[in-house]
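Project standup — Tuesday

K.O.: blocked on the structure for the chain from last sprint. Re-posting the sequence here as requested.
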Amino acid sequence: MFTDFNAWLKSGMDNGWISPPVCYTHDGIPMSITEDAEFTDGSDPCIHIIRCYEDAEQKEQIEANSFQTVYRNPFRYNTDEG
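H.V.: unblocked you, prediction finished:
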């Protein structure tokens, strides 16, 4: 259905399923006013983030350093990578 990652990402943005990519380090996490207030008041609302890898080497390095990217992956058993 999609020819490349950019087409897939654009479809998500065009359909309102995702935000445009932002940098957590420089832009912060996109939050609603309610989530921002909850966070400021000491609550910890769950805000889901998807990390885009630059290449297979970066993916491997991040997975080696961040176990959450492995155990939270519901698709890990459905890929050709094993």
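K.O.: great, moving the ticket to review. The chain has one domain: 5-71. The radius of gyration is 15 Å.
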